Here is the input.
Amino acid sequence: MKNIIFIAFMTCVSITLTAQMYFDGGIGVGGAWTINDGTNVTDAIDVDTNLGVTLDLKAGYDISGIKRIYLTAEISGVGHRLQRIEGTDYYIQYNSYLLGPGVIVYPHPNFQVSAAIGYSFTANSTDLPFIIMADGNGFALNFSGAYDVGRDVNSVLIGVKFHYANNALDHPIVKRQETSFLGVYVRYRFKG
Here is the structure.
C-alpha cells in the first residue's frame, strides 16, 4: 500500500512539474566577429568565408504560474569559421560556449525575450601548421527576441540572437579573445 501511495504521489509531482517546465533548442546562422588582443581577426587574414553558427539548449521552470516568466539554465555555443577556399586552402575555427542561468519573459503570448549570463570557455582549432591555437575561459552573455509560432505545448521559435564572450587565453602571445555573434535562429519549443 505504501508503494502505491508513493507512486501516486510521485506521479502527481511529476505532472505538476511538467506542467510548468520549459525547454527549447535549435540552430542559428549569422555574422560573427573575433577580436584577439584588440585586433579583428577578419581584418588580419585573407578569407573567403566568414560565418557564424549558434547552437542553443535551454531548460527552465515557470515562476509566474501563468507561463509568462521562466528561470532557465542555458548551454549555448557560437562557432566563428574563417575559411580560405581558393589558392591556399585553410580554416580557422573560433568556438565560445556559455553555461549559465537565464530568464525568459513573454510580454505577449507570441513574443519572447530572453537573456543569459554565465561562464564561458573556448575550443579553437585550425589546420594551419604555423598558428598555435589556445583555449581559455571567461564570461559570456546572450540576448534574444523571438516570435513564438504557436500557443500549444509544442511550437517553433523564430528569432534574433546576440552573443558576446570575453575569454582569457592560455597563449604565449595572444592573451584575450572576444567573440560576438548576431544572427537569426529557429528553435523547437516545449512549454508544459
Observations:
- Residues 7 and 13 are 10 Å apart (CA to CA).
